[in-house]
Design brief:
about 475 residues; six-stranded antiparallel beta sheet; five-stranded mixed β-barrel; 28 strands; 11 helices; alpha/beta; globular
């Protein structure tokens, strides 16, 4: 059994914490571990489990690799999608990468499943059904009449059962009837099937998609620890979910009930429901003072947030944006993201702190012709050998020791020392030490965009 972790989502409903460059699956939303890490840990201990395969956007490859490394997990593959095409092409690519007889346990990277024992039990109930050739989907046992999820109707209640139908999101009255019926489950997007069987069903219902995925996989190239799917062929794939492509059409679909406290954490309201509220019904995280406040989710990522006399609100503070929303309208946060995208504002895609394979940088100040950054380089890591056409850089080391290459000269720069890189000069920054290297960078020049980087030699093989 091979876990296939799908990590291609953007999590736009959890803006401003979730951004396109660092979406919710890479965030520690409910504890110390990120959602991706919790998903990878969840499969540990299952009989016959193999190292996971992760399918992700190519821009997130180093986030995936680093977060799995922190767990001590060595993935079997990290398949890179050149663009988003929904779950059917992602699952097809994973199936093509593995033995046809392998069982694929398909898991979204951003779901919460608190009861690991119940999850393992459900997988074991599904295993013999999948080995017999069924396409198993896990149906969440509903706890209330939810109108925000699609449903699966089983032919009979209880254990593994053939699927009678998939049902779109219902209204409240219909959801109440589903809850009373006992044969309806929330659609989780978690699956178990043989690699060969899902490819057979995809060939039957979406043959063009499989053909494109096969071409993209056969023309893929290895890049460090990653498998880069061929961009032209993958982009030509139909963007469609596995539900629409196969599960709603096949006669081989079975559903196994899962009662493990599942949540897709698809909104701030869902995140509030998954947390433990205080006596006023509030979830308060970070530096928060709440006065005459009830039923609220208030999260501070740095600054003090104070609330007075509010009810049923979502308040989320980050260094560059603050969200205030009615709890019942938290699904509409995506409309703000759409407006940011339409206006080409950076807050749509990037945090002030930006992750890089060598560490991270965070903007401190910016004005006309200058910019100040806080840069942290991991022990043993190095930036690319590069140059800039439009800016000079001043580096002041505040912690650790830097090895700096400027033109033909290489030197060590220690704490409280500085160096200067003029416009057009080739340079590289390295951390030869065993502690994180921290420095303050002051950029000056006519243009300070991140695209003013000419990489001459890059250990991470970035474009």
């Amino acid at each position: 059994m091979i876990p296939v972790i799908l990590s291609g989502g953007n999590g736009s409903r959890l803006w401003p914490l979730s951004r396109a460059s660092h979406p919710k699956q890479f965030l520690p939303l409910t504890g110390q571990r990120t959602m991706l890490q919790m998903t990878a840990e969840r499969v540990g201990g299952l009989p016959g489990i193999e190292p996971p395969l992760v399918v992700c956007n190519q821009d997130h490859r180093f986030l995936v690799a680093e977060q799995l490394r922190e767990l001590g997990v060595d993935p079997s593959d990290i398949i890179l999608e050149p663009c988003g095409r929904n779950t059917a092409p992602a699952i097809a690519s994973a199936a093509l990468a593995k033995d046809p007889d392998a069982l694929l346990l398909v898991l979204p990277a951003d779901h919460l499943i608190p009861d690991n024992a119940a999850f393992h039990a459900a997988v074991e109930h599904a295993r013999p059904v999948a080995l017999d050739g069924a396409l198993v989907t896990f149906g969440i046992v509903p706890t209330h009449p939810e109108t925000g999820y699609g449903y699966i109707r089983a032919t009979q209640p209880g254990g593994p059962s053939p699927v009678a139908e998939f049902v779109e999101k219902p209204d409240t009255a219909t959801a109440e009837s589903y809850l009373a019926d006992g044969r309806y489950y929330w659609n989780s997007g978690i699956f178990l099937f043989k690699a060969s069987r899902i490819l057979e069903e995809l060939e039957r219902h979406r043959p063009g998609l499989v053909d494109r995925c096969r071409r993209a996989f056969e023309s893929a190239r290895r890049d460090l620890d990653f498998v880069r799917l061929d961009a032209e062929n993958f982009a030509a794939c139909e963007g469609i979910s596995i539900d629409y492509a196969v599960m709603e059409r096949t006669d081989a679909a079975h559903v196994v009930p899962l009662n493990a406290g599942w949540s897709d954490l698809g909104s701030w309201a869902a995140l509030q429901t998954a947390a433990q509220p205080d006596s006023d019904g509030n979830v308060l995280l970070g530096d928060v003072l709440a006065e005459a406040t009830s039923g609220c989710y208030v999260r501070s990522e740095g600054r003090l947030v104070a609330t007075v006399g509010i009810e049923d609100c979502i308040v989320v503070e980050t260094p560059d944006a603050v969200l205030v929303a009615n709890r019942n309208r938290s699904q509409d946060v995506k409309r703000i993201v759409e407006r940011l995208k339409h206006s080409e504002r950076p807050e749509c895609d990037f945090h002030r702190r930006v992750s890089r394979p060598w560490g991270w940088f965070e903007g401190i100040a910016r004005a006309d012709r200058f910019q100040v950054k806080h840069i942290v380089v991991k022990p043993g890591a190095a930036l690319s050998l590069q140059m800039h056409h439009h800016r000079a850089e001043h580096w002041v080391v505040v912690r650790g020791t830097a090895r700096v290459t400027c033109g033909s000269e290489t030197k060590l720069v220690s704490e409280d020392e500085s160096t200067y890189i003029r416009i057009g000069q080739t340079h590289r920054l390295e951390n030869p030490g065993v502690i994180p290297l921290e420095l303050i960078e002051v950029q000056t020049g006519s243009y300070l965009g991140e695209d003013d980087i000419v990489r001459l030699d890059d250990p991470y093989q970035r474009d």
